[in-house]
Amino acid sequence: MRVLFGGDYNPEQWPERVWKDDYRLFDAASINTVTLGVFTWALTQPREDAYDFTALDAAVTRAVAEGRTICLATGTGAHPPWMARAYPEVTRVDFEGRRHRYGQRHNSCPSSPAFRRFSAAVAGRIAARYASVVTAWHVGNEYGGACYCPLCAAAFRRWLRERYGGLDALNEAWYTRFWSHTFTDWDEIEPPNALTEHWRGPDHTAFQGITLDYLRFTSDAMLANFRDEKAAIRASSDAPVTTNLMGMYKPVDYHRWAPHLDFASWDNYPPDDTAHARMAFTHDLMRGIKGGAPFWLMEQTPSTTASRQVNPVKRPGVMRLWSWQAVAHGADAVLFFQLRASRGACEKYHGAVIGHAGRDDTRVFREVAALGAELRVLGGVTLGARTPARVALLFDWDSWWALEMTDGLNRHLRYTEIVLAYHRAVWACGTDLDAVAVTADLSGYDVVLAPALHVLADGVAERLAEVAARGGTVVVTFLSGLVDAHARAYLGDPPLTSLLGVRVDEWDSREPATVNPVTLPGGPDVAARLHFDLITPVTAAVEGVYGADFYAGTPAVTRNEYGGGEAWYVGTALEQAGVDRVVRRALDRHGLAGPYADVAGLEVATRVTADGVPLTFLLNHRDEPVEVVADRDATDLLTGAPVTGGATLRLAPKDVLILR
Amino acid sequence: MRVLFGGDYNPEQWPERVWKDDYRLFDAASINTVTLGVFTWALTQPREDAYDFTALDAAVTRAVAEGRTICLATGTGAHPPWMARAYPEVTRVDFEGRRHRYGQRHNSCPSSPAFRRFSAAVAGRIAARYASVVTAWHVGNEYGGACYCPLCAAAFRRWLRERYGGLDALNEAWYTRFWSHTFTDWDEIEPPNALTEHWRGPDHTAFQGITLDYLRFTSDAMLANFRDEKAAIRASSDAPVTTNLMGMYKPVDYHRWAPHLDFASWDNYPPDDTAHARMAFTHDLMRGIKGGAPFWLMEQTPSTTASRQVNPVKRPGVMRLWSWQAVAHGADAVLFFQLRASRGACEKYHGAVIGHAGRDDTRVFREVAALGAELRVLGGVTLGARTPARVALLFDWDSWWALEMTDGLNRHLRYTEIVLAYHRAVWACGTDLDAVAVTADLSGYDVVLAPALHVLADGVAERLAEVAARGGTVVVTFLSGLVDAHARAYLGDPPLTSLLGVRVDEWDSREPATVNPVTLPGGPDVAARLHFDLITPVTAAVEGVYGADFYAGTPAVTRNEYGGGEAWYVGTALEQAGVDRVVRRALDRHGLAGPYADVAGLEVATRVTADGVPLTFLLNHRDEPVEVVADRDATDLLTGAPVTGGATLRLAPKDVLILR
Amino acid sequence: MRVLFGGDYNPEQWPERVWKDDYRLFDAASINTVTLGVFTWALTQPREDAYDFTALDAAVTRAVAEGRTICLATGTGAHPPWMARAYPEVTRVDFEGRRHRYGQRHNSCPSSPAFRRFSAAVAGRIAARYASVVTAWHVGNEYGGACYCPLCAAAFRRWLRERYGGLDALNEAWYTRFWSHTFTDWDEIEPPNALTEHWRGPDHTAFQGITLDYLRFTSDAMLANFRDEKAAIRASSDAPVTTNLMGMYKPVDYHRWAPHLDFASWDNYPPDDTAHARMAFTHDLMRGIKGGAPFWLMEQTPSTTASRQVNPVKRPGVMRLWSWQAVAHGADAVLFFQLRASRGACEKYHGAVIGHAGRDDTRVFREVAALGAELRVLGGVTLGARTPARVALLFDWDSWWALEMTDGLNRHLRYTEIVLAYHRAVWACGTDLDAVAVTADLSGYDVVLAPALHVLADGVAERLAEVAARGGTVVVTFLSGLVDAHARAYLGDPPLTSLLGVRVDEWDSREPATVNPVTLPGGPDVAARLHFDLITPVTAAVEGVYGADFYAGTPAVTRNEYGGGEAWYVGTALEQAGVDRVVRRALDRHGLAGPYADVAGLEVATRVTADGVPLTFLLNHRDEPVEVVADRDATDLLTGAPVTGGATLRLAPKDVLILR
């Protein structure tokens, strides 16, 4: 048993004579796992009434013969051409209201009976045929997007009936007395899009209520597709079923999916090569989907992506470092898209372990093979190990959606940027963190962060208060807790008022170029931007004040003692240094900062094995070497060398150290 | 009798128990006026064959009981959901040719028989029910947008038949021999949009003629909707009828509406907090709709808007200052949107006199209440007073439309920017100005400004010449007078040639970064940008010359003596300082500059009461105090204190002084 | 016989009384040619079953009477309104899938049977009527755009059947096993657009194969329209037939059209006034369409265009200089759009020889008349002369399309910018160049440039190798030769590997702001941007190396000796100075640099008359005078003055000299 290593492999795209070369190179790179069949539906079911497993049989048989672990896809991430022609309703209607015709992928209407019937049927057939050789099932692919067709409209109405019971409740929830929108018949309700409630795009809606519900409905509709196939698989196989999630992917609320995934897996394509902290957070979020259980890194590129405007290669050492980062945060599998490059179509220049030339003397292949060798050395020690976090961050798709679709806020605010700033402050301290849903059990955490938690669902205020009441520390920011699950403003003082000990009557918004300096204890003034709460303290102590504008001298940051604990309120978008100072205060109150909290660019993450042994990962993201002092005796797992407490640990640029 | 003070109030959106608080707070803020029912259609007519006045009865009864002046809306600014389902043609087809489905507001096809029938019917019912308690009627809401549906196409063809009689005249007017467009049947004519004559958007048309006519048709079609409802109201009520206009709103030519409005009212949402002069001009324009009669400020926000990318709050004192500015320019009502904040939907974060928390100890409420108290002190002295302007500026929707839709001009030119520069030069001098249509009587003005008057309708050249002939001064800019009402270039020397005394054979256009310095007498060179006429003087004197490019040394600004007067021609887009110098020459010729013409940021405006008493408003828009010397004995109307000629008048930042 | 001089003339747009003035002014400007009838279809065929030649008869009769050469258009560049109403399928469906209705021009579906029938019929009628007086036929106008309607879909499927025979070949060519796209029925294939395979726009496709084929199909469909009309003309007339091409116009592959044009003509509207080299190249490309035979400059503006955001006038002397540039590169006609300005519609402010005022004392008219006089002096000496180029540049629409539609490359790369940099290096040396298709005979060239030749069709590698093998020099850049005609990557080492002597395993892409300095012999380091090949030399010598990033010190530019010649490889986008140094090495190897190769801004071009006499054109594009030494005895053709070898030649700014 060791970390699964390999990735997406599509041998049906090239002649069988090449497969021999492929497996020779897989051996050379210690690749033990292949994901097969991700887009083979048109081959497997060449017409409505016929299945043909020739291609998949060949690929699976060869993988079995070569002794690889198989992750087998149901192949339903794109429907075959014949289906779109025979059932035009299987294609989607887009946000602009346009019925698409055949093309691309992720192109199926989730409410289409034809798609649901055919996808479940093919998944069932595949499961029946290959159950005996499959380690894990991969359903669909990167679920996402949305459909606005009449079938979805009808399904949405059914979904609403179940949720609201009657139109009175719906009208109340959506606040339809505004702008004369009172609905008197379910059939009057249209999907919210460019032809109905939206203008400019998905983030501008006349009614947040309907748009929030359509996002929830869409998440659920795709989840139903996943569940259709999973149920069909279960008829033949008990192997675990997953689908490849996409990290912080706005259109789908993965917390709604969590109960239905047997394990979490995700595709890591960071926006740039300085996204270390962002990736760390996303790993934490994906791990959080399944309550902290290990996940699979289902896809990453060995070198470049193909879909960006500009696609730089990963610098030497970066692929290795980021692979180890995944393991450090809970991955039990490190997989690539793609093992061999396609000859044609839009991903032909996406990075691959084996390029068009089929060579093993390339830089990319050499780095992959070296990582494979290291993972072999590591063996199974990390498998199943868990992260011992004492800090939780509440991540909430409802708040993400609401915050970015609501008029009257600053349109330059981005939910994930606010969240990432608070995560980064924790990450920089080498402190483990869980990113969890607002429904998660908070009783095990010392510190709970609630950045930009705009939507405050029922009970969350009480549960945050409990954290403080039992001595914990809560950190809340501007725009949190103002609206209910239907994005309706709370009347009177909002629910978090007593916990935070402040009142906010109004806020100011300014263009990105405007900076207001905030004075915080323990360092120079820090810049605040975009949003500025005008705060009236009620019971809270003032911790930071604005330095400019007509509200100069008024509070920007407060801290309220509550029960045995305390609650911070940060009323503006502080630059990172400001967030760092607030968060450090919260961590230090509980002694949670790590030994290398002040070493920039050195990530520290911990996993604890099933038998309670902590494994510490040190990851040097810098382009320079880093030296730190070992804080205890340990073993270097990659070299086997002993490490003595107090000795100097030296990490080369992009290097990694795993200490047990 | 005093200035009406209050605003939009939608009590149907919250429980009746809250209303008591609302009125208590209205009393505390001296609010005497409520606008009711602006979006209540779905409540008032819950289905095609039923009316239900429960909600409106309750709101009106309470307002009557509380002794408020009522401005009652017909509520037709958004149709109810059932109407869109039963009559899908009641929704609009947009510029892209897409039929919309139910959503948003301002969503009705103006040509739809169903909408016309239902809107008139509901207006009639409301008028019949509430005539006895209503001070003014508010029809629809912020008319605007456009529809491109088949019903509008048919209505457009009828409109064209009436205007042109036959196709020969239409072909001639639209110049259809170009690009093989000769129409041989009325039904061949399509609304000009993205699927027909346009590319890129509304400002790029193959034929200006058809696009101009469609804009006029659309203005008229919406006006017909207004007239439908007004006629229905007149069956029961003689109270004045208005609708809330939107200032410089491009899609609707308010001058076409003027005869049908009983009084003008408008919603003032300036683009930023430095728009003093722009607002002043817009007040002048709105006052000009009804020949200078007082208007209502129907909406302004007490604090923030919600619809912008970034929504700053009005700084302390700004709401008061801008309210007084409205009065200074002719407002007899100062109303807010909104008196209490909605809990949900896209305007929930729009500023409100009473916020979600329902408090009276907020900054915003305190400022509103203080203004209410001041207005009470003022009493009725300003009511009905008029502006004694000797300067007119010709504002022309046809020119706005033509200038910005015509290929071959500089696409960076904006009609309103050119107009505002000429207004600002007058405004800065403390000189009153009327913004009037090209059809207005010009006989009462000493100075007439015609900036960017691209379209020269029949007779306007003659009437401008008369102004000069009788000793007045005319100021004309580049791109004026080149085309007729169908946007066809005049052949031969264009009509303004003899008045201006210049010939323009060609012009140069350059990117915004290119500056040509222009030498004008009386100061340093000023920058010119974007458009550069190459001028050949015929009888005119050269007043300014270009300093660069191959036309260096040739005229940029000229002045032509004509009759007893003179006509300036400014052939390029001068920076403000250049416009100021030209306009000051024109004003000084008639002694029209005010006493504080050189005090930056101090606005001076005058209203003359019915009995001939001038009231002078001094408005300090600066963030610093201003001191000036009183030019005569007077009374400070807000304090009642006497002012002696020669004494120092001190205005705090954002302060206002009203002298009688 | 002399150079044809004149242009588009649309007298049907204004009263006949004006025509007399027009011809008087034509005489004054030595205008001998008029292009008539370009948009007269609606007049010529006012309804389906009727022709009316009144207007065209009048225009043609007058031109004949006035003794002008007539280029007669078929007028089918825009269909009449009645046709769109009677045959709605004659209008196009756009990339967004929207059926357009009547409007604009270039608006006909090329696959519409109605359009094909009517256009051929009207062309035939016109040819029959006017054959005796016409010198050349002008079919349609500026063919371009695309249609995505069901008729085009059906025609595309027919086109594919002819090309591929069966679906297996098509699936293989398009690589449809990717993303489950295997087609099992021809009718499943949809035109690639925003509703099928594309996202963001025309440059983002899931499958390059289908998009490439649709571009080829569209080129061929429009060519079929041209051929329809040409065949109809041939029934009555043997006069040469052309259409006005548009230079580097991406949507249409003019090389596919070449066999069907009797001569090339094109419309020269450069993007700005510093486009000298670009225009020179475009002339070379248009001349290359017909194997180097002289072409017509069918349109240029005498002063301004109207369609840009900003439309500067041509500075004094520029129109003359650019007209001579056309002649220098092979034009036997210099024509304007337009001789008289339209009064209305979107081109009314496009420059015209005669403006709205009808004057002859304008700057523009004077410059046109002066050029007319010069052309008269020149007489027929240049007619039929050809360009003696020893350098060829391969210009390839397939590569243009593929390079800019493929994911995984740097989206900031522009095919024409890369091509133009290599042309400019040749042009700056005063070296004549032919821009030719990849199918052209290369045996006559010493140097062949293949910049960004992404698509390497069958046989091209061999033919480039032959150039080097016989002693020539080949220059190839990054991203060349990687894919076949279906945009499928070559497997194994790509075909140019042995010629170039290098291997490229991967490349790096960076944002435009990132610069990597490249060290080249013979000068300071040059900047490289956007794309950086990581090159492994096999047999090639290293000529330039990167100075930065992890590949610092590795090759950026190589040179490989091959047979008697050599092949350069440039693996990155060098700034112009770098390209210049590489190209100069190639030219100098064959002694091809001209005598004034180091004089910036002085263009030198040669034409050789039928009797072998070289004519040298010197064109001074600078704003300063230029002095050079005559390299031989000659005659100045415009003045008749003798020039002695060794004497100083002085050219004023924008001046031209023609030496025989």
From TrEMBL, chains A, B, C:
<dbReference type="Pfam" id="PF08532">
    <property type="entry name" value="Glyco_hydro_42M"/>
</dbReference>
<dbReference type="InterPro" id="IPR013738">
    <property type="entry name" value="Beta_galactosidase_Trimer"/>
</dbReference>
<feature type="domain" description="Glycoside hydrolase family 42 N-terminal">
    <location>
        <begin position="8"/>
        <end position="376"/>
    </location>
</feature>
<dbReference type="InterPro" id="IPR017853">
    <property type="entry name" value="GH"/>
</dbReference>
<dbReference type="GO" id="GO:0046872">
    <property type="term" value="F:metal ion binding"/>
</dbReference>
<feature type="active site" description="Nucleophile">
    <location>
        <position position="299"/>
    </location>
</feature>
<dbReference type="GO" id="GO:0004565">
    <property type="term" value="F:beta-galactosidase activity"/>
</dbReference>
<feature type="binding site">
    <location>
        <position position="105"/>
    </location>
    <ligand>
        <name>substrate</name>
    </ligand>
</feature>
<dbReference type="Pfam" id="PF02449">
    <property type="entry name" value="Glyco_hydro_42"/>
</dbReference>
<feature type="binding site">
    <location>
        <position position="147"/>
    </location>
    <ligand>
        <name>Zn(2+)</name>
    </ligand>
</feature>
<feature type="binding site">
    <location>
        <position position="152"/>
    </location>
    <ligand>
        <name>Zn(2+)</name>
    </ligand>
</feature>
<dbReference type="InterPro" id="IPR003476">
    <property type="entry name" value="Glyco_hydro_42"/>
</dbReference>
<comment type="similarity">
    <text>Belongs to the glycosyl hydrolase 42 family.</text>
</comment>
<keyword id="KW-0326">Glycosidase</keyword>
<protein>
    <recommendedName>
        <fullName>Beta-galactosidase</fullName>
        <ecNumber>3.2.1.23</ecNumber>
    </recommendedName>
</protein>
<dbReference type="GO" id="GO:0006012">
    <property type="term" value="P:galactose metabolic process"/>
</dbReference>
<dbReference type="InterPro" id="IPR013739">
    <property type="entry name" value="Beta_galactosidase_C"/>
</dbReference>
<keyword id="KW-0378">Hydrolase</keyword>
<feature type="binding site">
    <location>
        <position position="149"/>
    </location>
    <ligand>
        <name>Zn(2+)</name>
    </ligand>
</feature>
<keyword id="KW-0862">Zinc</keyword>
<dbReference type="InterPro" id="IPR013529">
    <property type="entry name" value="Glyco_hydro_42_N"/>
</dbReference>
<feature type="binding site">
    <location>
        <position position="109"/>
    </location>
    <ligand>
        <name>Zn(2+)</name>
    </ligand>
</feature>
<dbReference type="GO" id="GO:0009341">
    <property type="term" value="C:beta-galactosidase complex"/>
</dbReference>
<dbReference type="Pfam" id="PF08533">
    <property type="entry name" value="Glyco_hydro_42C"/>
</dbReference>
<keyword id="KW-0479">Metal-binding</keyword>
<dbReference type="InterPro" id="IPR013780">
    <property type="entry name" value="Glyco_hydro_b"/>
</dbReference>
<dbReference type="InterPro" id="IPR029062">
    <property type="entry name" value="Class_I_gatase-like"/>
</dbReference>
<feature type="domain" description="Beta-galactosidase C-terminal">
    <location>
        <begin position="601"/>
        <end position="660"/>
    </location>
</feature>
<feature type="domain" description="Beta-galactosidase trimerisation">
    <location>
        <begin position="389"/>
        <end position="592"/>
    </location>
</feature>
<feature type="active site" description="Proton donor">
    <location>
        <position position="142"/>
    </location>
</feature>
<feature type="binding site">
    <location>
        <position position="141"/>
    </location>
    <ligand>
        <name>substrate</name>
    </ligand>
</feature>
